[in-house]
Amino acid sequence: MAAPPFTIVVTETKTFGGAERSVIALSRWLYARSLPHRIVLYYDHLDLARYADHPIDIVTLNPPRNPFRKTAALRRYFKTLGSNGPRPLMSGIQSALHASLAGVQGFHSLMHDTPSLLSDTADEKSVG
Predict the structure, then answer these.
(1) 22, 12 in Cβ contact below 8 A?
(2) pLDDT for 60-85, tens place per residue?
(3) What H or E segment, with its residue span, contains residue 126?
(4) What is the pTM assigned to this prediction?
C-alpha cells in the first residue's frame, strides 16, 4: 500500500494573509516536484483553492466549533492515515498546539513570521 500524501495542517483561516500565502507557495513547490500532498483545514472559510494557480487537494474536517471537538476531529483524521506516512507539517502555533492535544506524533511546525505579528509600535521604539 502506498504511503499517504504529505499533510499540511492549517487549523484556522479567516483572511488570506502571509501564512496562507506561504502554505500555497509550499503547495506549489511540492506540486512542481510531483510530490503528493494535501492541506487539511477545520473549515474552508476562504475557498483556499481559489488562491492557487495549480491543482490543490484540500480536506475540510468541519468539526463542531468547540476546541475539544476540533482536536478530536484532527485525531480521527490522522488515525485514518496510519503510521507509515510522512510526518505532517503544522502551520502556525495553533495547529501545533491542536496536534499536541490530539496526540499526533512526530509533526513538524512552521512558524510564520509575517509583518502582522510584528506590529507592536511600543517594541519598535525600544529597539535601537
Answers:
(1) no
(2) 999 999 989 999 999 999 988 877 77
(3) helix 121-126
(4) 0.82
